[in-house]
Amino acid sequence: MQISKHKVVTLDYTLTNDGGEVLDTSKGQEPLAYMHGTGFMIPGLEKALEGKTSGNSFSVTVEPRDGYGERDDDLVKVVEQAMFGGVEKLEVGMQFQAETDDGIEMVTITAVEGDKVTVDGNHPLADVTLNFGVQVVGVREASQEEIEHGHVHGAGGHQH
Ligand code: ZN
């Protein structure tokens, strides 16, 4: 069975940057399960998976524009510490959901100086060229219920 829209795909993967550093891997965990064509995967990887079948192994290099985007310096902002009311100690690396004009976005604290906090709304992998090693473990039809929910049920997916 070939991967196409609404197929449920399970796969093993290892993600490295251009320096060969492993950024993420499914090794030692359950394979990842996702529904193809629902925007779950970054575009470059989804495109590479299209038409593949169970047992296929391949490598693909995904440029930032087809991955987590290119860095946008406008997404770096300095805000008042008071905006984080309720958080006792702000530290570099903490992540928060922020309400912006474009909806909810994840921001990462990159600096804390006095009562000024620098937050960065870029994805941590923005501007990174992604090298995926992928092995397709399984491909199956999604159930009607999964298609309605827009996500995978059972192993590697939602348990509900
Ligand atoms: Zn569901």
Distinct small-molecule ligands in the complex: zinc ion
Overall mean pLDDT stands at 93
Low-confidence stretches: none
Q: What value does the Rg take, in angstroms? A: 19 Å
Number of distinct beta strands: 9
CATH topology of the largest domain: Chitinase A, domain 3
N-to-C span = 27 Å
- Major sheet description: 5 strands, antiparallel
Give the topology string: H per helix, E per strand.
EEEHEEEEEEH
Class based on secondary structure composition and strand pairing: mainly beta
Count of separate structural domains: 2
Helix count from the secondary structure assignment = 2
Shape: elongated
Instruction: Specify the helix fraction band.
Output: under 10%
Q: What's the CATH class label of the largest domain?
A: Alpha Beta
Which helices and strands appear, and what pairs or packs with what?
Elements: E1 7-16, E2 22-25, E3 32-35, H1 43-49, E4 57-62, E5 76-80, E6 95-100, E7 103-113, E8 116-120, E9 130-141, H2 144-149
